[in-house]
């Protein structure tokens, strides 16, 4: 008889685990595990012992897992409500693997081998990715990135990323991705190559990996340059909602890691953020929004990465063809920086345009526009 103070607790746990083991269909190393449980004689410290056994027995893992979920949600609850200008900070290297939900001694029976970036289990259910979803919110404005055609200064794709904000309720990142994949942008100049895909879940794991699982991935085929912009649309949207540009994104379809998007082969590694200068529109209007009704004088705000910090603008009355134009400056040049200007406009429907000119020959290189109604 052992006089260790945890002896009664250990004995009760051994009995419970032995009964649980008897209800599980044996697979590979389960016989050895059951034998070790029944033959255990030496007492061990309570907390490490409980967590070790919890990794092998499904019944007790559920109770222990609740603490990990609570800790993750608490840690991420204070993320910024909306993201500012996208950062180009390099992200840390993250291993492309996630924890399997099955016992280490019970390899999956539904698949011959597990790819390092996907999660598998031995049940008949589809493989599930590791991580926990975000807490739900009642109402929040979230950033969503879209693809828009460029006038010039592109990377060969002919398109770049533009950002808008939309109000959602529910899990913020999931709803932002759902908006991106199933709805039209408020600005008709923007669109999404992800239309037709169906997102199932967005989960975060402790290693800063975000898994976006789709019931159905997009089937559109794009050339490599355009496919890169479309892929970054998802990366930028997820990171902007989370307020963390270092997060890497693993794309899965029904729990299985995908190796192809938009007809282009992926490396199998989680997706990283591309430099903003390479994929993001170099100028766009943030307010007023498309079809907004405003009073004169009208204040226009936006973001641009402008040569010598100069942004040109023009307002055209769509009925009278009256044109008002001038230029403004960003706070800083040659990097993404905010700009603002105010102009008096007569009542009516106006088209606002902001654009940048080539320093070589003066042709328009980048532009964005909005239709507004002035009272």
General description of the model:
The protein contains 7 helices and 17 strands. It is α+β, with helices and mostly antiparallel strands and 375 residues long. Strands 11-17-16-13-14 form a 5-stranded mixed β-sheet, with no helix packed on it. The model is unreliable at 1-6 and 16-129 (pLDDT under 50).
Identify the overall geometry.
globular
Cα-atom Rg, whole angstroms? 27 Å
Unreliable residue stretches: 1-6, 16-129
The structure class reads alpha+beta
Main beta sheet: 5 strands, mixed
What amount of the residues lies in strands? 25-35%
Q: How is the quaternary structure best described? A: single chain
Biggest sheet strand order reads 11-17-16-13-14
Number of helices: 7
Helicity, as a percent range: 10-25%
The count of strands amounts to: 17
Distance between the first and last residues' Cα: 89 Å
| Secondary-structure element string | HHHHEEHEEEHEEEEHEEEEEEEE
Mean residue pLDDT: 74
Write the layout of secondary structure elements.
Elements: H1 7-23, H2 30-39, H3 46-54, H4 58-76, E1 137-149, E2 159-170, H5 172-182, E3 190-191, E4 198-204, E5 209-216, H6 224-242, E6 248-253, E7 256-257, E8 260-261, E9 264-265, H7 276-279, E10 283-287, E11 292-294, E12 298-304, E13 310-317, E14 323-329, E15 337-343, E16 348-357, E17 364-374
Parallel strand pairs: 5-6, 11-17
Antiparallel strand pairs: 1-2, 1-3, 4-5, 6-7, 8-9, 10-12, 12-15, 13-14, 13-16, 16-17
List the main descriptive attributes of the protein structure presented here.
375 residues; alpha+beta; globular; disordered N terminus
């Amino acid at each position: 008889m052992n006089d260790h103070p945890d002896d009664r607790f250990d004995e009760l746990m051994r009995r419970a685990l032995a009964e649980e083991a008897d209800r599980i269909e044996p697979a590979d190393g389960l016989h050895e595990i059951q034998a070790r449980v029944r033959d255990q004689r030496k007492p061990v410290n309570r907390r490490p012992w409980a967590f070790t056994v919890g990794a092998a027995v499904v019944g007790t893992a559920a109770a222990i897992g609740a603490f990990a979920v609570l800790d993750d949600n608490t840690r991420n609850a204070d993320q910024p409500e909306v993201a500012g200008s996208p950062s180009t900070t390099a992200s840390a290297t993250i291993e492309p693997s996630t924890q399997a939900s099955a016992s280490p001694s019970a390899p999956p029976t539904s698949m011959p081998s597990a790819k390092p970036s996907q999660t598998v289990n031995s049940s008949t259910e589809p493989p599930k990715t590791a991580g926990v979803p975000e807490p739900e919110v009642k109402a929040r404005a979230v950033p969503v990135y879209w693809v828009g055609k460029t006038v010039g200064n592109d990377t060969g794709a002919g398109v770049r990323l533009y950002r808008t904000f939309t109000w959602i309720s529910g899990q913020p990142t999931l709803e932002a991705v759902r908006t991106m994949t199933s709805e039209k942008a408020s600005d008709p100049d923007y669109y999404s190559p992800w239309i037709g895909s169906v997102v199932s879940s967005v989960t975060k794991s402790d290693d800063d990996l975000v898994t976006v699982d789709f019931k159905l991935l997009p089937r559109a085929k794009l050339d490599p340059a355009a496919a890169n912009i479309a892929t970054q649309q998802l990366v930028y949207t997820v990171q902007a909602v989370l307020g963390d540009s270092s997060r890497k994104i693993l794309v899965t379809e029904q729990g299985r890691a995908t190796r192809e998007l938009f007809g282009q082969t992926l490396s199998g590694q989680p997706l990283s953020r591309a430099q903003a200068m390479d994929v993001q529109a170099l100028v766009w209007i943030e307010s007023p929004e498309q079809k907004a009704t405003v009073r004169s004088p009208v204040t226009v705000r936006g973001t641009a990465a402008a040569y010598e910090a100069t942004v040109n603008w023009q307002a055209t009355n769509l009925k009278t063809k009256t044109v008002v134009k001038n230029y403004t400056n960003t706070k800083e040049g040659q990097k993404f920086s905010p700009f603002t200007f105010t102009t008096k406009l007569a009542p009516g429907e106006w088209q606002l345009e902001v654009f940048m000119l080539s320093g070589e020959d003066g042709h328009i290189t980048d532009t964005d526009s909005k239709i507004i109604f002035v009272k």
